[in-house]
Recover the amino acids of this structure.
């Protein structure tokens, strides 16, 4: 309950955020511009050029990550709620993340009943929320392994359990999930989970986290089953 309250307070700050992210994109873009101008105006030796090129690439990657984590969220809330088959929607997400997972030697396995279990969500926001969770799970398993997704019905609810066997989190890290800019990664945005909590709450879903340092993490998303 307390945790839910804290999360809610965190979400309040989110609206101030849409504006500042576009602001944030200016940093990498300014930096890229600067280096491209330098390369254009001076004769540098090969090593120096390579160094500049690498910096430019890093800045492009930073901008790309910011956009990826934030893309759906930054769009105006259309409130386009549709009834989806959870199973086929998750299969689409698995296709999108296929290359990202394969590159890191990670296999995503889905267990779901054939009828798919329907929920009412904004499909794009649902996709973004789940993608951000799975990408974090993949990031937490640098040595590869299995990422498991289980969809099940529990009374009038549909549960989506997303489990990695990665680095896990401490209690403090779990508390800070969803806080803008909280990231333990060298090139993280710290915006992915904020977006996830925000859009899941907009769609009246719930998120629970169980995590053990060194063991792994399970995120459970709960939605009312749509009839
Ligand atoms: P980013 O991925 O850019 O760091 P996120 O908001 O997506 O930002 O995640 C915030 C932080 O939460 C991560 O840096 C990581 O410390 C922690 N985290 C989220 N999911 C997991 C997970 N599955 N396993 C371990 N740590 C996680
Ligand atoms: Mg992330």
């Amino acid at each position: 309950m307390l945790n839910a309250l804290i999360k809610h307070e965190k979400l309040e700050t989110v609206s101030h955020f849409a504006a500042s992210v576009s602001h944030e994109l200016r940093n990498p873009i300014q930096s890229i511009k600067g280096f491209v101008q330098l390369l254009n105006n001076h004769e540098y030796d090969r090593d120096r050029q390579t160094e500049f090129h690498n910096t430019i690439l890093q800045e492009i990657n930073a901008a790309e990550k910011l956009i990826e984590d934030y893309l759906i969220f930054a769009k105006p809330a259309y409130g386009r709620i549709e009834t989806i088959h959870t199973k086929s929607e998750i299969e689409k997400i698995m296709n999108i993340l296929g290359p990202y997972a394969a590159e890191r030697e990670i296999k995503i396995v889905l267990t779901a009943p054939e009828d798919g279990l329907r929920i009412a969500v904004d499909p794009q926001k649902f996709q973004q929320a789940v993608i951000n969770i799975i990408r974090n799970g993949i990031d937490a398993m640098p040595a590869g392994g299995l990422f498991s997704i289980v969809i099940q019905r529990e009374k009038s609810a549909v549960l989506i359990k997303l489990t990695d066997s990665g680095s896990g989190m401490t209690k403090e890290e779990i508390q800070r999930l969803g806080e803008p800019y909280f990231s333990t990664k060298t090139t993280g945005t710290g915006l992915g989970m904020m977006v996830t909590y925000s859009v899941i709450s907009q769609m009246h879903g719930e998120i629970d986290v169980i995590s053990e340092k060194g063991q792994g993490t399970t995120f459970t998303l709960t939605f009312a089953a749509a009839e």
